[in-house]
Structure formats: C-alpha cells, structure tokens
Amino acid sequence: MRLPILIINFKAYAEAAGRRALEIAKAAERAARELGVNIAVAPNHLELALVAQSVDIPVYAQGADVETPGAHTAHVAVDNVKEAGAAGLILNHSEAPLALSQLSRLAARAKAVGLDLVICAPDPDTSLAAAALKPHAVAVEPPELIGTGRAVSRYKPEAVVQTVEKVSRHFPDVAVITGAGIESGEDVAAALKLGTRGVLLASAAVKAKDHYQKILELAKPLAD
Predict the structure, then answer these.
(1) Rounded average pLDDT over 179-193
(2) pLDDT, tens only, 102-160
(3) 45 labelled catalytic
(4) If exposure means fewest CB atoms within 10 Å of the residue's CB, which of 70, 89, 111, 143 is most exposed?
(5) Is position 146 annotated in a ligand binding site?
(6) Residue range 174-201: average pLDDT?
(7) Annotated binding-site residue? 10
(8) Alpha helices in the chain (DSSP H)
(9) Could you tell me which residues come within 8 angstroms of residue 219 by beta carbon, excluding any fewer than 6 positions away?
(10) Which residue in 93, 136, 183, 211 is the catalytic one?
(11) Contact, 102 vs 65, CB < 8 A?
C-alpha cells in the first residue's frame, strides 16, 4: 500500500452501479495522475472485476466473508476478490462487522494472497486490537458520524489522535487512516494534520455531481 492514500468506497450506492462505477473509477484515476497522489477505489462486488480490468489505480474489495473458494453459496471468498483483480481488501466496516475470530482468519488469508489490507474500527481501543492483526492500515471510523457530513477530523478529532498514538506506539508498521463524515478537501487536510496517513470516504465522492472535480478537491491535500 502506497501512502498517503485516499480510498473511495462505492458501497451499494445507485450512483455507482453498473457502468457508473467505471465512470467514477476513471475520474479517480484521472485525478490521481494529475495530482501524483495515491487513490484507490472500492466498487461493489458486482462491478469489482470490470473496474479492476479497466483502471490502473488500486481497486479494493469492500469485504469478504470466507477465506477460500468452495461450497459457500452467496458468500465471497478472499481468493475470489483476488482472482477478480482486486489489489486490496477492506474488512470490518461498521456496515459489515465481523466477529474477531472470523476477522483474524480473513486478515491472515488476505495477507497470504498478497492483498493490501485495511481493517476498520470504531474507536482507539478497537483500532489497537485491529492493528494487532498486522494489516497495512487501520481505518478509525466512529459509526455515529458515517454518512452525516460531520467529519471525524472536525467533530471527533480526539478519536483520531488517540488512535494514531496507540497504534504508532505498539505497531509502528501499521498506518492509521480515518473516515466518517468526510465531505471536503478541508476535512481531508484536517485528518492528515492529526497524524493519519489517509482517508476512507464514500458519499462525498460517489454522490457528487461532478465526480472528477470532487475527487480532485478531496485528493489535493495528499499532494500538499
């Protein structure tokens, strides 16, 4: 994983369904090239292969719930997303929480097959526990701020600062990124000033009227 990084989660938004996912990914790729920064996109599983085959920036899977392929109807294996072309995997988002035992197994498999691994956590203590699984990054995201437009870097900066302090002290090789309510380039800049190495966001980019211009705004602080 190259840092600092902006990760755009498409979730299951209608604005990022089907070919629209590719349009957003292409806008992110263009912004990354223009600014010379690191941007990754995380499309829905249904668009994962299409996007991964069509852009040169990293494409992450939004999650997985079993380790390896097999008789797992309606499940997604870590190996499945790797085969689809994903460069990374996000686990334990507050909208897709995992039991610790399952998270540990999935994290180990993701690292074994060479995926960038981001583990989400809601607070500093849980982030420290997540960092013990040795992901490439922990994303601290207070769930009460997700999707609210109230940026964690402004409304709950202490959670970010405490996470950075705890994780860097015990697991210096694990990067801390943050998310929840990030809406503007100013929010991203504030997050970086708190010591994070990047931002994970969704609606601000996906629901923007002009995807390219909004992603450009959000990513510019990474170049400053």
Answers:
(1) 95
(2) 999 999 999 999 999 999 999 999 999 999 999 999 999 998 988 888 888 888 999 99
(3) no
(4) 70
(5) yes
(6) 96
(7) yes
(8) 19-35, 45-54, 78-83, 100-112, 124-131, 152-155, 157-170, 185-193, 203-206, 211-223
(9) 6, 31, 32, 35, 37, 39, 185, 188
(10) 93
(11) yes
Q: Is 101 annotated as a binding residue?
A: no
Q: Is 181 known as a binding-site position? A: yes
Task: Give the separation between CA 91 and CA 62, rounded to whole angstroms.
Answer: 7
Convert 149-214 into a string of H (helix), E (strand) and C (coil).
CCCHHHHCHHHHHHHHHHHHHHCCCCEEEEECCCCCHHHHHHHHHCCCCEEEECHHHHCCCCHHHH
Q: What percent of the chain has pLDDT over 70?
A: 100
Token pair of 62 as six digits = 């939004």
pTM of this structure = 0.97
Average pLDDT of 202-209?
Answer: 97
Let me know how long the chain is. Answer: 224
70 known ligand binder: no
Residue of 141, 183, 211, 217 marked active site: 141
Tell me the C-alpha distance between 4 and 206, whole Å: 20
Domain 5-223 has CATH 3.20.20.70: yes
Of 190, 218, 189, 193, nearest in space to 203 by CA: 218
